[in-house]
Amino acid sequence: MTSLRRIVYGTGIVAVCAWVLVPIYFIALGAFGGRGGVFAWPKTGLPTKLSLSAMLRFLEIEGVWEAALNSVIAAGLCMLLSIALGAPAGYALARFNFRGANLYRLLILMTRAFPLAILALPLTVSFIRVGLYDTPYGVALIHTALALPFAALITSSLFVGIPRELEEAAWIFGCTRWQAFLRIVLPLALPGIAATAIFAFVISWNEVFAASILTVRERTLTAYLLKILSESPLHYRFAGGLLLIVPSVVFIFAVRKYLFAMWGIANR
Amino acid sequence: MADIQIERVRKEFGTVRALDEITLHVADGEFVALLGPSGCGKTTLLRIIAGLESQTAGRIVIGGRDLSDVPTRNRGLAMVFQNYAVFPHMSVYENIAFGLRMQGADTARVETRVKRAAGLLHIETLLERYPAKLSGGQRQRVAVARALAVEPPVLLMDEPLSNLDALLRLEMRADLKAILQEAGTTTIYVTHDQTEAMGLADRIAVMHGGRIVQFDAPMAVYSRPNSTFVGGFVGSPPMNFIALDAADGEARLGALTLPAPVQSGRILAGIRAEDFQLVERGNGLPFNVLVVEPLGSHALLTGRVADQMIRVVAPPDRGHAVGEEIGLAPVLQRIVWMDAESGQALSGQTLEKSS
Fold this sequence. Notes:
The structure holds two protein chains of two kinds. Chain A is mainly α. Chain A has 13 helices and no strands.
């Protein structure tokens, strides 16, 4: 009975992993296998004639590095703004009982229910007017709007997890509210805040719709690749795809423990 | 060192009155327990003294200084929390040193004070460890050491032992009493455990429904409760209350005639389980044994007297059996008379003491 359960359990795990890993594996195979590898049929599934040439050629395409820089600027700014605005909101939600706290929590989530497509045109118009159109800073603002709900809710659950008594004890022993936050709450929340920051970074890094609409020349990497890849040979597309996937996978992997904790899945 | 004067403190949460005009004077160096069932307002009162909660009306004066508008950090108190609240990212040493560091004490002074506090609580060997590696009892010791290290004039404790297991609680209770007696710190100790309050406190303030219903020395609270609530809450087993009808200044209970404090009306005789003498059958009150609980040091008998359930403490080796009928003779001078309707003590014998 137990062995049967173990088999079912194991099969499930293998299936779920394969669901994610097999496509990534084939993308990597396409990226490093060269032109021949992409068109070879039947597929062996084994890496043959590996070369970095497609990847290197891809990196030499004009504008890739500029687009990558734009992506880093947009994602970096998005990360900073999300934490700077989201963490205080999360702290307020976690520590204070204010009228309408639950409604506020709901509204935060509802912002994600509002389709970006409807916002796109008015946003473009106002961005042109303000001078943010076609800059990574404008993209960063939109990405912040996308990441902020998560940042606020995730940090809120972080702060809820830090017992109130720890702060109260700090006050008793002579701390101001701010000192207590810096000395007690922040060190305890820091790993989780870092994870939230990386999560915001990944949201921005992967986002393509807003980035495509709000930029023309100063594209972020995703938006740029979307444009040029449709005109490129297949193995270049694989190289570009892999380049997009890898950073977010690595980041998410690095902070997986905190994301599980935040989403209410027991991590112990 | 300081005394504490709590003057007419009221606390309302919306329309709910959590504390109703609490007035309490704690003398310098005294150990006072706030004892009551959950929801009686004892923790709220403690948090108001600490400044973690603000009162709706009234004053808190400690050592002659009105603290009503002073923020928590400037009140110069120390507190031990129910869940210990030791800082998990600091070593035991840094935890104990925290208050001193916040006061800006120099390294040498921090070192001597931390060593002394750790010594008092027998945790000198744990100073380099982190709280995650400590047991519950050890964490509680760290929390107490952290509070004592600042040598506070007033120490507040919020059910500090309730998360420990029974044996550890007993040990820690004795340690706490010895340490605090030596330090001479004015202490307010919140608990719902009446044995803790009895064992530790110089005086007990029994709270019920946001009021202090009796404030007296432990033995006075125990043997002279001023209401049926106090008699029923303090002591294990709770006090027995036998309803009687008084007539012509006397109350009849079986074959016994007792002098009653009122001329006529329904009254309650409050008698502790150990305040009965067991006598021959046919003498005293007839008592039908329904349950026998041998508890080691004594046997607890539950049974019926004049159709009312009471509990009686008997010597452990008498071998009483269920269904037996025994005679009971209550110790007359230890009977506390209560009004059956209001539940308050009659004859004023306890009221004058409890102001």
